[in-house]
Amino acid sequence: MISAEIARRGRSAQIYLRPTGFVDAPFGYDGQTMRLAGGLVWFSMVEVLAADAHGRFDHALVPVERIEDFVDSLPEPQRTSAGRQLGRLTEARAPLTLGERVVRLDQPQVMGIVNVTPDSFSTGKGLEEQPAEAADHAVALASAGAAIIDIGGESTRPGAKTVWEGDEIARVVPVIERLKASGAALSLDTRKSAVMAAGLAAGAHIINDVSAFTYDSEALRVVAASDCPVVLMHHQGSPETMQQDPQYRDALLDVYDWLEERIAAVTAAGVARERLLIDPGIGFGKTLRHNLAILNGLSLFHALGLPIVLGASRKRIVGALSGEADVSQRLGGSITLALKGAAQGVQILRVHDVFETVQALRVWRGLRDEALTP
Q1: What span, in angstroms and rounded, lies between the C-alpha atoms of 354 and 23?
Q2: What is the Cα–Cα distance from 210 to 226, expressed in whole angstroms?
Q3: Residue ranges of the domains in the chain?
Q4: CA distance linking residue 170 with residue 159, whole number of Å
Q5: Which of 76, 111, 339, 353 counts the highest number of beta carbons within 10 A?
Q6: Which residues are catalytic?
Q7: Mean pLDDT of the chain
Q8: Over the range 208-225, which residues count as b (16 or more CB within 10 Å of their CB) and which as e?
């Protein structure tokens, strides 16, 4: 029995709650389902995972109608931790107010990628010296249904070299300035404080940091002085080295723990918890099996109580599972991963192919709406 084994191991044991047993609709199942993060997904079971420094040592599937009794059976401090997680699993995520736009998080939203770099995945050509063309591409993505536009001036794909902050500013600020009056919600993808400051001054609404504010010691000061939402993404290593034999005790649980630690560090630095979003960082210091484990367990991250961003579009995982398909031939796999995220309650899907992803989500939403119509 998990509670007895946890009591034996003491404070070194950790408990994790992952929603599962998803159902089409809660009707007729009073007390047997819970709504996940105030969204369009209901779950009937909770997978309880127990781990210590050596990894997982026990697990169980607990029906929703018995989960509170299960939590009460745990010793301290695991009881308090599990109770907090259970509450966060069902708490609705507040909408994001981004300039003129309000982005609701009770349904999956699309974040369209605009890479203002020499090796852009988003357009298939370099846009680092084409701010007008990059802005036009952003407008097209917004017209296709992207709720947020994510603008980046530094490639962070495996093996990418660091870009000088002056060059990065020169790439992204003219694009942001062109888009500021468009009413689009603008996210700035950067890990450098100077770029953050310049981008926020130009009109960016969100900072999306692939290092979760571990790269630049001044970055937290910049965002703490603003009121913008920020995305904390998990990574292991730097873009230059992150795919050189990444190691985890347990990829899913290690990423969860790391994000929990970063949330604590960022809030301690003065950034309100309500401003945070999290991203498990698919492809950032992870092997194929690590990525698959995280994607299969995505619903676990709702226990952190924050909106989830998933960026798996056109990534190596798709090519690896489809005969080493070129990046230009990864649409089908990218859509599959986006729908995997939506089915597990992910709030924001960061993608290159906005029209196709929005279409897929509209079909998914139509199925959900029919199921949720009494």
Answers
A1: 27
A2: 19
A3: 2-90, 96-371
A4: 22
A5: 111
A6: 315, 350
A7: 94
A8: bbbbbbebbeebbebbbe
Q: Decide which of 318 and 241 is more confident.
A: 318
Distance of CA 236 to the CA centre of its chain: 16
Q: Tell whether pTM > 0.90.
A: yes
- Grade residue 243 by pLDDT with cuts at 50, 70 and 90: confident
Note the pLDDT tens digit of each residue in 158-211. Answer: 777 888 999 999 999 999 999 998 989 999 999 999 999 999 999 999 999 999
Do residues 251 and 281 make contact, with C-beta atoms less than 8 angstroms apart?
no
For 239-343, where are the E strands, in sequence order? 276-279, 309-310
- Whole-angstrom Cα distance, residue 83 to residue 88? 9
| Domain 96-371 homologous superfamily, CATH | Dihydropteroate synthase-like (3.20.20.20)
Identify the pLDDT of residue 118: 80
Residue-wise pLDDT for 14-47, tens only, equals 999 999 999 999 999 999 999 999 999 999 999 9
Cα–Cα distance measured from residue 92 to residue 81, given in angstroms and rounded to the nearest whole number: 19
- Sequence-distant (6+) residues with CB within 8 A of 367 are none
Q: What is the pLDDT of residue 240?
A: 67
Token pair 């010793």 is found at 75
